[in-house]
User: Fold this.
Amino acid sequence: MTAVIEARDIALAFGETPALRGASLSVQAGEVLAIMGPSGSGKSTLLHCLAGILVPDAGEVLFDGQRLDTMPEARRSALRRDRFGFVFQFGQLVPELTAEENVALPLLLNGVRRSAALAQARPWFARLGLDGLEQRRSGELSGGQAQRVALARGLVARPQVLFADEPTGALDSLTGALDSLTGEQVMELMVASAREQGTTVVLVTHEPRVAAFADREAIVRDGKARALSAGAGTVAP
Ligand code: ADP
Assistant:
């Protein structure tokens, strides 16, 4: 197996607060890796370093064998746009856009024509149980629906790697009676869709039942990562 992303002994402090203190982790092409650990242990910081959003103070981050941490910001940003997808907690949709425009956004930013981008966005609505919500704005969606729109947006451009930070976080507290899909079903859809298109997934969660959908788990404690052996929690593709 080849590593698509690798962190080697990375350290990062926010002022006086050390968030990462020598974390190493490698993510294999096509795998679904869950990063777990207590709150404040450095999981999100590690994810942001792996995705080239944050640059560590020390250590190396490699994507497809290239150093991400020494790459100029313009190239890193182009790489994030072209090769990575993101799903963050609470969806973070653009409120002025309709649901289908939100899903199509990564394609539009990549220069795909509007009609083609919307055509590519639409099948995600049926797939994620969002039929009929295409024209709604984020204020007219439940937390769970908005999260699924964000998930579709993360996957629509068929990214090489999908980064997800607590992708079901908003569902646990906000899923109402009108929402038929639970956090687990959304995870199942995310993993199935990613596997179908060969997208590698790196997800941060504190929920063992969410991590159970991953091929492998890594535990972050006190800013250091420890990979658990493959096998536990593996689900059939
Ligand atoms: P986790 O995702 O495991 O909850 P984080 O990576 O968010 O942990 O945070 C690790 C540590 O870094 C915590 O002590 C947190 O308070 C601190 N931290 C994270 N982001 C920032 C920031 N932007 N500014 C200051 N401190 C931060």
Notes: The mean pLDDT is 87. Residues 183-196 form the longest helix (14 residues). The chain has one domain: 3-228. DSSP finds nine helices and ten strands in the chain.
